[in-house]
Model the fold of this input.
Amino acid sequence: MSKPEPKPAMAADPSQSAGESGMVWVAFGSILLAELGDKTQLATMLLSARSHSPIATFVGASLALILTSILGVLAGQWIAKRVSAALLNWLAGAGFVIIGMGILWQALQDWSI
Done:
């Protein structure tokens, strides 16, 4: 009687690693586009110009962005465990509508003056 061949060790699921690396690029692209030209970038440029120390400014700004990203990830995980994805989507949509209505209201107020 022959012995059955041992099963090869399970390799990591390639679809999972592809999904994770894909999420890295989605997060990178989203944050990069959101941060270009915003007040954080402007503040960093002003700090660098004022201090004449671009390396120190870069390190400080990078550490601050890393910390805020960590806080965002932790808060997102905490919320995701307590609130359904459907409710989160609805709340996000409602928030954007409310913000948009506020901006429109302000623009109409400014326009009528």
Notes: The chain has four helices and no strands. The chain has two domains: 19-82, 84-113.
